[in-house]
Amino acid sequence: MQEPSRHYVGLAARARVSRGFTLLELLVVMVIIGLLAGLVAPRYFEQVGKSNVKIARAQIVSLGQALDQYRLDVGVYPTTEEGLEALVVKPQNATRWGGPYLQKAVPVDPWDRPYQYRSPGDHGDYDLYSLGKDGRGDGSGENVTISSW
Fold first, then answer.
1. pLDDT tens per residue, range 70-86
2. Which of 2.40.128.110, 3.40.50.720, 3.30.700.10, 3.30.420.270 is the CATH number of 26-147?
3. What sequence ranges are listed for the domain Type II secretion system protein GspG C-terminal (predicted)?
4. pTM of the prediction?
């Protein structure tokens, strides 16, 4: 039998030594991933917040179009008491109701709260708005009031 060459023995020894990662290597990788997440995550969530505001604006425009169609059919906007549900379910006093004016149920805002509706409104025939993420509407970014006016 032949003896294994030195080159072969060196490769086998190195293979045994480098079978796994050391704890230090794993910790370095974890720190790098943590730093990257710390840099990327805030920017990602900022974009999500901007998209929620855009969704709310688009839904308010869509609800406004449905309200306008309701007014064309019935002659007046739904009262505050009738609310946006009048776009889906015929109110008792709406004789010329031609709805439903929405394909599905009345949507909630992107933060799972109902849209605020008031008719007559302070800013026009009706006020339709969302108070944003915090529910107060007095901030900026996602916490701003998104309205029909």
1. 999 999 999 999 999 99
2. 3.30.700.10
3. 44-149
4. 0.65
Distance CA 145, CA 67 (A): 20
Complete DSSP assignment for the chain: -PPPPHHHHHHHHHHHHTSS--HHHHHHHHHHHHHHHHHHHHHHHHHHHHHHHHHHHHHHHHHHHHHHHHHHHHSSPPPTTT-GGGGTS--TT-TT-----SSSSPPBPTTS-BPEEESS-SSSS-EEEE--TTSS-BSSGGGB-EE--
Least confident of 10-19, 25-34, 64-73, 121-130: 10-19
